[in-house]
Amino acid sequence: MRKISQFFISALVAGLTTLNTAQAAPTEKEWTLLVFLNGHNNLDSFGFKDVNEMEKIGSSDQVNIVVQWASLANRKTKRLYVTRDNDTSKVSSLALEESNPVDMGDYRSLIEFVRWGAENFPAKKIFVDVWNHGSGWHNLKALRDGIGISDISNDDLTGNKITTIELGAAMEEISRIIGKKVEVYGSDACLMGMAEVAAEMSESANYFIGSQELEPGDGWPYDRFLGPLVANPSMNGADLGKIMVREYVASYNNVGDLTLSMMDLNQLPEVEAAVQGLSRAIRALPKSGIKAVGRAIQETQDFFYSDYKDAGHFAAKLSGYGITQFDRRAADDLKQALDRMVVANATSPNYSRSTGVSFWIPGETYQYSAHSQAYSELKFHKRTGWGDTLKAILF
Fewer C-beta neighbours within 10 Å, C or N terminus of the chain? Predict the structure, then answer.
């Protein structure tokens, strides 16, 4: 990338108004938001709008807002330090670096951006935001509105995307580089609010934000949560997540297919232990009981992909279904563990049964067969054996 001098960046970070002969060290702030904004697709125009939403607030003396913005329209990738500006007809924030298109579907590009951002804009709490199309954990391309989508951060220029496992590997390396867990990881993308995605980074981040359902093209309302953050930068990840979740749904006037939730990843081991217990209870059932579980799956809240089911609703269905010889405590334990993990959850009225976390729960054998091999490689399956339980239900 074409770069502005390190001295200039240091001066900017330090908030200097005049240039000195000695290089200023970057000043550690409370928060740095690092947005990996992949506009190499049909969402490009929304990227422009979202950067303008960030500019409504701008960075402050305690909050850095930094964006790697790849635009299909101008075929440039820029690294922006976002400053306040109310002109929504243009992006006026300073481009600290600019280059020909970067492959935003390469997880190493995400690692490099966060490394650069954390080094030049250090903070006590780091928020990593991956902005693009999303497809949950699925790794097979599916057409949506005529566009082939899988995993996250699909780059139409290169044909690459970041797989669920690569995203976890990126977050692990990022955590190593910054010497601590990322405070918040968020996917401003569709369908990413899944235990399977969260599990890949459970040792690398404290909190995880994602939508169980599709997101509208405009995605998150950046000004509506950055404003409170700049006003109160001492808040932690959970505090910020509660605001984000609430304001996301409110920004669309509660109209549409809206879901957003935050998970406390430090509670995920408890959920995984409960999944193991539920698996034992299901697999101990006679055939008649297994068939009843299958019927409960069909009645569970699903999302754009019918094999993405709400985990809490599924547990509640099993608990209240009256399945002969089924240990209801296993379903209740899972529901309670999920409730403890979900810090915040908001939905539009038509998704009132959504409790904040999706699991892969295919109700048809063809769905299982299409994805089972890839699923076996995920941490969530390796730690819970959930894929084996699904096989026992379906076959």
Answer: C
pLDDT in tens, 156-189: 999 999 999 999 999 999 999 999 999 999 999 9
Claim to verify: residue 129 and residue 274 sit in the same structural domain: no
- Report the number of distinct structural domains present in the chain: 2
Q: At what angle do helices 164-178 and 107-120 cross, to 10 degrees?
A: 20
- For every residue of 91-126, which 3-state class applies, written as one string? CCCEEEEEECCCCCCCHHHHHHHHHHHHHHCCEEEE
pTM assigned to the model: 0.94
| Of 194, 225, 252, the domain-final residue | 252
For residues 228 and 329, membership in a common domain is answered with: no
For residues 30 and 234, what is the distance between their CA atoms, to the nearest angstrom? 7
pLDDT single digits (tens) 98-138: 999 999 999 999 999 999 999 999 999 999 999 999 999 99
Last residue within a domain, chosen from 219, 252, 285: 252
**327 & 178 share domain:** no
Q: Which domain holds residue 323?
A: 268-342+363-394
The pairing of strands 182-188 and 123-131 is parallel
- The torsion of the CA quartet 315, 318, 319, 325, rounded to 10 degrees, works out to -140
* CA–CA dist 274, 268 (Å, integer): 10
Amino acid type, 61:
D
Answer whether residue 262 is part of any domain.
no
